[in-house]
Amino acid sequence: MFAKLAGLSWSLSVALTFVIRLVTLWFATLVGVVGLLVVRRVIGEPLAEPVEAAAAEAQAWTGPEP
Fold first, then answer.
1. pTM flag (> 0.70)
2. What sign does the dihedral 38-42-48-54 (CA atoms) show?
């Protein structure tokens, strides 16, 4: 497409397309990492062992009061 629009050679067009795709990939990765950090700051860290924590709560529960 760069060859038609900008009059660039085929090899330069391919290289430019490849560089643009790599930059786009890393930009999206950076946006995802920043988003993950923001979400973790807003809602906090996840439980380390959710299954074991639930099992410990179930064992500690004695049932309804009589």
1. no
2. negative
Distance CA 13, CA 23 (A): 15
- Helix, strand, coil percent content, the chain, rounded in steps of 5: 75, 0, 25
Q: Domain extents for the chain?
A: 2-60
pLDDT at 50: 65
One-letter amino acid identity for 52?
E
Show the beta-strand stretches assigned E in the chain: none
Q: Which amino acid is at 41?
A: R
Higher per-residue pLDDT: 52 or 44 = 44
